[in-house]
């Protein structure tokens, strides 16, 4: 793994993302781009100053906002799309989009990048995760370049954000529920945590398509000219399973599950798949290289279906 000096730990002020925060945040930013320059947004958001900082951080690393120097905070194209289509973040498709955005903001959410790409253990205790993450950070940015306490704080927030403690009785009124629990990527039982393949019934094929596109866009500079055929952009299925930030890593997909989704996407003509002569290649089509276009297709299709049911 190449060393990466630009890292960020504990940007969340030790607060995991809580249910309701993102709705409150995008509505506030849409109304007032200067919300975070006016007392850090605490008064407008109705939370403490540290929580306001956490909301600001989560909105940025989840791809919902962008900050322009001396001008304020604005919704991104994705932020505007979600504000229009799912402003209360009730659709699991939206949460999957945010999960992918988080993993691709590696300089702002370094611990998440390490956990999903470099931690290969399927089952572990919290103390074991601390040790593995320290080893990963030493390779990623170098020894002595980060605070171990901040890294452990990130581990705690990450675990709480993805894995609900079954023995705890949560009061919805306290808003200590994470919307990421529903992804099913991490389970906990007693003192152990386990990485899991999500329930495929709740993982829409277009999320896998978006994961492929985001992976392609990040690594496009690495594709050799001979991987392009007739205007199609080729990626090996093995790369989609094993490489950093590939769908196999970001979505915890097995080879069988990945191939199932590739077949679905091929049937819908979003991409081509060639498994002849041992090629095992996926070819992206030029007209389907924009992940936001895929997200819009999902929301438009959902709205069309809703109207047909009325």
Mean pLDDT: 89
End-to-end C-alpha gap: 53 Å
- In the predicted model, the low-confidence regions spanning at least 5 consecutive residues are 223-228
The strand order across the widest sheet is: 6-7-9-8
- What is the total tally of β strands? 9
How do the helices and strands follow one another from N- to C-terminus? HHHEEHHHEHHEEHEEHHHEEH
Shape: globular
Main β sheet profile: 4 strands, antiparallel
Strand % is 5-15%
Q: Summarize the amount of helix as a percent range.
A: 40-55%
Radius of gyration: 20 Å
Computed structural class: alpha+beta
- Summed up, the helix count is 13
Account of the protein in words:
The chain has 310 residues and is of the alpha+beta class. 47% of the residues lie in helices and 11% in strands. The protein has 13 helices and nine strands. The chain has a four-stranded antiparallel beta sheet. A three-stranded antiparallel beta sheet has the order 3-5-4. The protein is globular and about 60 Å long. The N and C termini lie far apart (53 Å).
């Amino acid at each position: 793994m190449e060393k990466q000096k630009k890292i960020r730990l504990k940007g969340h002020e030790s607060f995991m993302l809580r249910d309701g925060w993102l709705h409150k945040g995008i509505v506030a930013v849409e109304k007032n781009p200067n919300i975070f320059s006016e007392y850090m947004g605490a008064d407008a958001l109705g939370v403490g100053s540290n929580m306001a900082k956490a909301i600001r951080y989560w909105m940025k690393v989840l791809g919902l906002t962008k900050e322009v120097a001396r001008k304020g905070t604005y919704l991104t194209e994705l932020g505007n799309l979600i504000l229009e289509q799912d402003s209360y973040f009730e659709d699991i498709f939206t949460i999957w989009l945010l999960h992918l955005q988080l993993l691709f903001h590696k300089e702002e959410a370094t611990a998440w990048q390490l956990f999903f790409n470099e931690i290969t253990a399927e089952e572990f205790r919290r103390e074991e995760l601390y040790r593995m993450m320290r080893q990963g950070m030493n390779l990623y940015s170098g020894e002595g370049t980060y605070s171990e306490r901040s890294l452990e704080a990130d581990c705690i927030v990450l675990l709480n954000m993805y894995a609900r403690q079954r023995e705890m009785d949560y009061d919805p009124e306290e808003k200590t529920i994470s919307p990421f629990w529903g992804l099913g990527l991490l389970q906990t039982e007693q003192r152990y945590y386990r990485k899991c393949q999500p329930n495929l019934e709740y993982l829409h094929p277009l999320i896998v398509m978006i994961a492929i596109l985001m992976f392609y866009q990040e690594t496009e500079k690495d594709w050799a000219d001979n991987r392009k055929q007739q205007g199609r952009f080729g990626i090996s299925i093995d790369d989609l399973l094993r490489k950093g930030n590939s769908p196999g890593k970001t979505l915890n997909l097995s080879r069988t599950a990945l191939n199932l989704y590739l077949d679905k996407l091929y049937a819908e003509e979003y991409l081509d798949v060639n498994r002849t002569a041992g090629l095992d290649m996926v070819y992206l089509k030029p007209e389907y290289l924009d992940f936001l276009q895929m997200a819009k297709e999902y929301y438009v299709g959902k709205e069309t279906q809703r109207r047909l049911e009325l």
